[in-house]
């Protein structure tokens, strides 16, 4: 059978023996107060909503990795209140759906519930494997998705709302983003075997998942918004940027903690982080925030003055095991009453790294990872 690495992206699969079952992350970490947190298999406190009280100011919610090709996820979208968010803004950080029909249905439903909806594409949005020969390549599909967004009234460009700058950022990953020591002495499947992007996406010309061509191409798409971004920098004291992919390696657990230790090679972009830093500049933590998605890890951590947040809906199986805290706290309110909201909590891995230094040179496998490869 095929077991899926979770909570990582659905790109990652591994063939196991017939009797093996899908394995899930069972990490024992410590939060800042020293309390033990077991990431699955035990009862855990629900993630609490933040800043959901009624008020007359601008409220901005965030959500990523909707994956509404799953019926349960589409039902969750349709179950959102049609009244509660009617004056609010939603930032969708990619991976809405694999098929364009599900994409349009999802975004139309969200637009019916929120006053404004912003979107950037993720890798699943650009898959062509279930679209037949409708699209020549993933860039043509992206063009159709952006056309659909314009028709629905979905924003994909930077905007100023009530003094808050909102900047969607296009991005893609590159393997050289990963500069930490690799795990040795275990047989780890290749990227091409595990990552479905290599087969489900189609790229024209010299673009490919090898090298930095895709990361550079998508980053260059942001240049067309240069004038508006400069205006946001001049006039807005608070700015939120958002992307699908990961801008910093510190926003992912270390390789020894991961069932697929090569994961960091297919999650992020240095060019994206440079872009984020160029926009936020030297703004303080209370006025600079970047939202991302892709890895399905809840995250809320300040690094070098910028707050990084991930709030994924993720896959139904992940929510059932409450690997991301369940679904009742989503979408997460990142901005309310003229300021960024309180910390998203609990976020198991970012809380762990807030209290423990990162040690990428330590390649000793975490017990749950060692057990996984021993069973394999």
Please provide the ordered H/E string of secondary-structure elements: EEEEEHEHEHEEHHHHEHEEEHEEHH
What value does the average pLDDT take? Answer: 86
Beta content: 15-25%
Sequence of strands across the biggest β-sheet: 8-9-10-11-13-12
Structure classification: alpha/beta
Determine the N-to-C terminus distance. Answer: 12 Å
The value of Rg in angstroms is 20 Å
Helix content: 25-40%
Q: Give a short account of the largest sheet.
A: 6 strands, mixed
Number of helical regions: 11
Low-confidence stretches: 1-46
Oligomer: single chain
General form: globular
Number-wise, the strands total: 15
Protein name: Calcineurin-like phosphoesterase domain-containing protein
Organism: Citrullus colocynthis
InterPro entries: Calcineurin-like_PHP, Metallo-depent_PP-like, Pantetheine_PDE
Domain Calcineurin-like phosphoesterase: 58-183
What report would you give on this structure?
By secondary structure, the protein is of the alpha/beta class. 26% of the residues lie in helices and 16% in strands. It has eleven helices and 15 strands. It has helices at 71-79, 100-113, 138-152, 191-194, 197-200, 213-220, 226-235, 270-280, 316-320, 348-355, 367-375, and strands at residues 2-4, 13-15, 28-30, 36-38, 60-63, 89-92, 116-119, 159-161, 164-168, 238-242, 288-292, 299-303, 306-310, 332-336, 339-340. The protein has a six-stranded mixed β-sheet with strand order 8-9-10-11-13-12. It has a five-stranded mixed β-sheet with strand order 7-6-5-14-15, with helices on one face. The longest helix has 15 residues, at 138-152. The radius of gyration is 20 Å and the shape is globular. The model is unreliable at 1-46 (pLDDT under 50).
